[in-house]
Amino acid sequence: MELNVLRYIVLSPLIGFLINGIGGKRLGHRAVGLVANATVLISFLIGVYAFTVLLSMPVNERLLTDTVYTWISAGALTIDVKLMMDPLSVVMALVVSGVGFLIHVYSLGYMHEDRGYARYFSFLNLFMFSMLLLVLSSNIVLMFVGWEGVGLCSYLLIGFWYEKDSAANAGKKAFITNRIGDYGFLLGLFLLASSLASKGVLSLDFTAMAGHVALLSPAVLTVIGVLLFVGATGKSAQLPLYVWLPDAMEGPTPVSALIHAATMVTAGVYMIARMNFLYVLAPTALEVVAVVGALTALYAATIGLVQNDIKRVLAYSTISQLGYMFMGVGVGAFSAGIFHLMTHAFFKALLFLAAGSVMHALSGEQDMRKMGGLRTKIPVTYAVFLAAALAIAGIPGLSGFFSKDSILAAAYGSGHTVVWLLGFITALLTGLYIFRLMSMTFYGESRIDEHTAHHIHESPKVMTVPLIILAALSIIGGYVGVPRLLGNIFGWHDSDMFVHFLAPVFPVVPAHKMPVAVETWLMIGSIAMAVLGVFAALYVYVTKRMQPAKSAAQAVPGLYRLLLNKYYVDELYNAVIIRPLMALSRSFLWKFFDVWIVDGTVNGSAYVTEWASARLRKIQTGDFQVYVTIFLIGVFSVLAYFVLR
Amino acid sequence: MDFLRENILSVVIFLPLAGLLAGAFINRESKSALRWLTLAVAVIEFAVSLLLVVWFDPSATGMQLVERYTWIPAYNIEYHVGVDGLSLLLILLTTFLTPLVLLGSWTYIKKQEKDYYLWFLALETGMVGVFASLDLILFYVFWEAMLVPMYIIIGVWGGPRRIYAAVKFFIYTMFGSLLMLIAIIYLYFAHGSQTGAYTFDVLKLYGTYLPASVQGWLFAAFALSFAIKVPLFPFHTWLPDAHVEAPTGGSVILAGVLLKMGTYGYMRFAMPLFPAAANAFLPYLAVLAIIGIIYGALVAMMQPDIKKLVAYSSVSHLGFVILGLVALNIQSVDGAVLQMVNHGLSTGALFLLVGMLYERRHTRELSEFGGIAKKMPVFATIFMIATLSSIGLPGLNGFVGEFLILIGSFFAKPAYAVFAGTGVILGAVYMLRTYQKVFWGRTTNAANEGLKDMSPREIIVMVPILIMIVWIGVYPKPFLAIIQSASKSYIQYVRPRAAALPVYRQGPAFRTPERLK
């Protein structure tokens, strides 16, 4: 069904961007904030309206479209600016605009004193525009516009405090790492387009593609799937392209919340889910997704265990949680992956914003070694932080539990035992690192220096209200997708509404033939892991009052250093790729090859000509006798030739 | 109106020359009058050139708005001009950039203003003439005539090594052109002796039958001449020298328009005139183009001088255009033509901006800058948009061209896109690195403390370019519609005849699925 208001979901923040971007300096803080917030709220409200329209439609016809105009047309290749909303994109659109809106509100308070207030909000709106375009596009090229757009916005916002070199570098790193992923994505897109074209279909529309990918051979589909996933590893910070995300915390904290929760990093997961029709036909590619996701989940969690910067812990936790989402979609449980994407958006936005509130209270301090005992001093922040921590740890009853459990169950049920095991261990580490963070920040004794301690204050309402809303969502957000098993226990029918709602988008996955007993034990197992992690952390850091960093460093110094330095991956990339390329370009290509060989040949031929001419010129002596002599030699030579022939 | 319509192309070609004559009567000291007069001429010229669009029918094939008069009857040389989508867009690009360049030069040029502005008008006539000519001799005359003003602009108003750069530019280009002239004359006689019709009409010459080896030589002569102009790797080294030494206006026109004459030459002359040879050379051209894309980007990445960096980036960008032209399908060729325009806009914008910075600081060394964004926020914003356009951010013009070229070359041969695509990454690397070095970080250099942001005049120079950058990015359809029939006939000229001459079919086959045409 054509629903022409869809375009305004995307357009509204773009208008906000233009207003604040062009006239921001003259508008004043209030107007800037109003425009930025109102435009995102409008998107959200239209999204809600479209959602109700969607709900009122028969289950299998739930698809709204809005064709705006033809964008590119070259030969048989036509790419429209066309939006579509099905159950998958409506979930994404609501999460993006809803959580995004709360982050906008919070920013009103957080960025209040910043010199670049208007610039900040205009970029934030551009971010919303790009992400909404990404999730609402009806074809893969238009999606790529949003895809690159979020890359740009992350670049602009991470580098927002551009006078700091670290921020400027981090911004650039984000963009370029993303571009590397995008290169893979583009190749995947090209291969898809040309393979389809060779079957007589040149359309990059999702619906059209879904109808025709079955024509392609599994090998081709696998290559396409892996290439597209390369793009996803860039955007969604998976191995090996995750390196930009931890540095992304150089941006203002609400930006981290935006990047880590609502926008940007979820794009890769969404893309795989959107392209599910292709991935189910390319099981090997899907396997790659699942394995990379599982490895990333574990890998990032181990790094998160030892970091001392509060935002850095959260950054690695995002990478790890995104790994879970890829595990989910990778084992074919697309709705479980998207479910975790949604709950994660709630609690990760909350974690970052609450961390911002902590920093706000401590005059910008990020080092957890200089925190502690904040529980009573900033109680609201503490309470919401606790809710988010419990949610991410997967404590039963909170949102993270339901979504993580459905991923793990799906992994096990689909026979991905190794993937499941990695996820299972990660569950323990998650509880561990997040409660290590809680302990170092909120519990125990204060390690705050006196000057800062003097100024501790709870954040203003404009910041705490969004926190409270997000806390509520982190707690109850999972109840839209209660696993059947539990639903049956409590007598709720259709308890996994979420899966049902998304069902028309995703292929019918064969039901996991797991005996109830196995499923029960799996659930108990993951609960046990989570609880174990939480209590272990509390025991070590609160009860035993261990000096957080020291104890671990003493126990296993080598491993500790390896983790603290993030496995030296940045250094490795630097030494293996960046430096050699720079050296090659500068010393060989430019200073030697270009200057000496290429240009040397050009100038050399000019010099040779000049040199030869200078020699030849000598013949022109102007001496008549020489001319006559040469002339006579010539005449006699010719004669001699004819006579002697 | 009828008179105008029948002679519109001649009007567009010679209007700047008329302006030059008028300007010649103005006193050398009345600088302001000269500035305004030349600007007015260029603006009127642009307005008049818009009539070309009005009267151009995008759905028709072949040349339009044709004018044809006998010029030198003895050799059947004609004054024969006309446009298709390709030349139309390039003429518009020329008439669009010229007034901006003139306005942008007002404070930059501080000596012999009169000569500068008048030479620019002469240059404009030459450039439009090149794009409009359909007679090979007429084309050659304009091609050479346009060298002179540029030679003088670099040589008189350029930097410290301007004479070296100007001479190198002139002789290098001339070297290629002379080979082309010989090829033109050979072609004239070959065609005449076969058909009895001696003509320089390029459209008639398209059908000339030539033995394979002869085609190879003639194509090589044309291709070399244009390769130098593009510049295609490894014929590019005159470009960084010329750009660094040229005054801002010269650089803008050089990058924006003159380089396009090379790619235009491939599309209008070299490839369709000698299709069999062109097909044989295709893979080599593609490889050179790809080397150019990567090589240009890598070398650009290390440049300490911003202008030199942009110059090498042109080598990279023009590599994309050539790749699009040789991939020979509708997507890639459409993309290539659009990218000619895009490169003119984005690189033109970058050169204008670098010039503004140079006027303030008299240096272009990256290391001299840093933290400029805080001092010049408007400038920083506009520079950012130009940067993003140059690296092909979706939503801006560069993406549409690059995307079509890449997808088209993937259709032709996936390896092309695989290698060329790395240029997309490298482009981001060198441009963002530059941006960071100039604009971000702290202002450490005291000389940058008192920098003034853009003046209203400077903003007026940039705004039209920004509008085009966004327009083509968001709604490229009208432009693609104009290009369409020109690319179709180009492909038809180049491809089918290759099949007719089996001797040239040994090279890698170019596969384009039927329905992509």
Task: Describe the overall structure.
The complex is a heterodimer of chains A (about 650) and B (about 525). Chain A is about 75% helix and about 5% strand. The longest helix of chain A is centred in the C-terminal third of the chain and has 49 residues, at about 570-615. In chain A, a hairpin with a 2-residue loop joins β1 (about 65-75) and β2 (about 75-85). Chain A has 27 helices and two strands. With about 650 residues, chain A is mainly alpha-helical. In chain B, β1 and β2 (about 75-85) form a beta hairpin. By secondary structure, chain B is mainly alpha-helical. In chain B, α5 (about 115-130) runs antiparallel to α7 (about 145-155). In chain B, strands 1-2 form a two-stranded antiparallel sheet. Chain B starts with a helix and ends in a 17-residue tail after the last helix. Chain B has helices spanning about 1-5, 10-25, 30-55, 85-105, 115-130, 135-145, 145-155, 160-195, 200-205, 210-230, 240-245, 250-275, 275-300, 305-325, 330-360, 370-375, 375-390, 395-410, 415-420, 420-440, 455-475, 475-500, and strands at about 65-70, 75-85. Chain B folds into two domains: about 1-275, no CATH class; about 280-500, no CATH class.
Structural descriptors:
heterodimer; A: 645 residues; mainly alpha; two-stranded antiparallel ribbon; 27 helices; B: 517 residues; 2 domains; 22 helices; 3% strand
* Rg from Cα of chain A: 31 Å
SS strand fraction of chain B: under 5%
Overall mean pLDDT of chain B stands at: 90
Give helix % range of chain B. over 70%
Largest interface: which pair? A-B, 54 and 61 residues
Q: Segments of chain A where pLDDT lies below 50 for 5+ residues?
A: none
| Biggest β-sheet: strands ordered side by side in the sheet of chain A | 1-2
The total domain count of chain B is 2
Question: What characteristic shape of chain A results from the CA principal axes?
Answer: globular
Largest sheet of chain B: 2 strands, antiparallel
Radius of gyration of chain B: 22 Å
What's the count of strands of chain B?
2
Cα end-to-end separation of chain B: 38 Å
Secondary-structure element sequence of chain B?
A: HHHEEHHHHHHHHHHHHHHHHHHH
Number of strands of chain A: 2
